[in-house]
Design brief:
This protein has 4 helices and 2 strands; from the N terminus they run H-H-E-E-H-H. By secondary structure, the chain is α+β, with helices and mostly antiparallel strands.
């Protein structure tokens, strides 16, 4: 799921809660929201490990074959951004300089 789909799905989740609270369970609006959420979830798969303890929940880990997260790309410790990526951490210096100037 990309960033924009996630943002829209979160907006739909709030609308779903509002409709549910107001008892619009069988209304066409509820069906539209449910179908939109299901459409956004079509590529979501995987598993999550959670721990329940005294009415609290903690996520212990997540894994998915379709994960968009890549450790090499996210790491700032790998000089050159890894062999597969055309990124160098020093490339961010221009962006940081622009933020300081603003």
């Amino acid at each position: 799921m990309d960033h924009e789909v996630k943002r829209i799905t979160e907006t739909l989740a709030a609308e779903f809660a509002r409709l549910y609270y107001n008892r619009f369970w069988l209304a066409p609006e509820m069906e539209l929201v449910q179908n939109s959420i299901e459409f956004g979830q079509r590529d979501v798969e995987g598993s999550a490990r959670m721990e329940l303890y005294k009415e609290n929940i903690a996520v212990l880990g997540r894994e998915s074959e379709k994960s968009l997260y890549n450790v090499d790309l996210a790491s700032m410790d790998i000089e050159g951004g890894g062999d597969e990526f055309d990124y160098n951490p020093t490339d961010a210096q221009f962006f940081l300089d622009q933020c300081r100037a603003a």
